[in-house]
Amino acid sequence: MKKAALIAIAAVVAVAPAGGDAAKAESSKRCPAGALCVWTKANYEGKKAVVKAAGVENLSNGLNNRVSSVKNRVDVTTYLYSKRNGEGEIRCFGSGDKIANLGDSYNFDNEASSSKIPQGTNPCF
Ligand SMILES: [Ca+2]
């Protein structure tokens, strides 16, 4: 009886997709070194933008006011702003920060409209 149950579990596991969608989902959660990455959903899911250039950049329409998670893989502090062109409310992210949900302590869910990668180091205020 016990053995039959184990075989049943093994069969279920074998049916689960190997790689495929799961691998794709995992790679979309990645953020390349030197980049600031933002996602439209919590936990690095949904639509992603990868920002590498220094300076202020406006988020594309698909991400504007929709960003819910962030990874900062730039070696300096980076910023998100609630309005276009680096204006409005500011949130800062230290190098290496990973924020799975901007709605938590950041109180910035679906707010970001532009980002900034500064040249040189700036404090996270
Ligand atoms: Ca906004």
Notes on the protein architecture:
This protein is of the alpha+beta class. It has one domain (2-117): Gamma-B Crystallin, domain 1 (Sandwich), CATH 2.60.20. The protein has 2 helices and 8 strands, in the order ααββββββββ. It has helices spanning 2-15, 21-28, and strands spanning 36-41, 45-51, 55-58, 69-72, 78-83, 87-93, 98-99, 114-117. It has a 4-stranded antiparallel β-sheet, with no helix packed on it. Strands 3-8-5-6 form a 4-stranded antiparallel β-sheet, with no helix packed on it. The longest helix is centred in the N-terminal third of the chain and has 14 residues, at 2-15. The radius of gyration is 19 Å and the shape is globular. The structure holds calcium ion (CA). Calcium ion (CA) is lined by residues 65, 82-83, 111, 113.
